[in-house]
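Can anyone check this?
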Amino acid sequence: MRKHLKKFLPDHQAIHGNRWLRPFRNSLLHPRLWHLNRHSAAGAVAAGLFCGLIPGPLQMLGAAFCALVFRVNLPLALFVTLYTNPFTIVPLYVLAYQIGRFAIGDSAGFIDPPALDITRFVAWTADMQQWMLGVAKPLGVGLLLLAIVLACAGYLLIRAAWRLYLIRAWRQRQAR
C-alpha cells in the first residue's frame, strides 16, 4: 500500500532544496514526517480530517501543525484537508450546525438570516450580528464534534484498511 501512496507524495529532497522552507528545515525534515506506514498514515488522515473543518485557508496550516506535533505524515495530512471544497463545505457546516443544536439541546430550528434592506442598513447590520451570535454556539460545538467523529472514523478506517491489505498480501505470499 505504501508504494501506491508514495507516488503521489513529494519526496524528502524536494523539501530540503526549497529555499522558502529553509528556516523550518530542522522541524520539517524530521524522518517521521515523511515516512509512510500504517501509524503515520492513520494519524495523518485523522489530522487532515480534523483540520479540514477549520474555516478558510487555515486548514492546511492546522494540518501541518498537527502533523508536526504528532509526528505523522505531513504531505498526507495536507492532502486530506482537501475533502472540504466549495461543493462540500456548505453541507458539512449545515450538518455541523444540526449536530451542535442537538448537542446543546436547542430546539429552535434553523434561524433564517435577516434580509438585506438598504433603507435600514444600520438596523440590518445589528440584526445580522444577532443572527451570527445565535448561530455561533451550535455551529462551533457541532464543528468540534463533527471534526472529532471524522478524525476517529478516518483513523480507524485507515488502520483497518491497512491491516486488511497486509493480511491479503501475507496470504498471497504464503500461497505462492
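Reply from J.R.: I decoded it. Residues 121-175 form the longest helix (55 residues).
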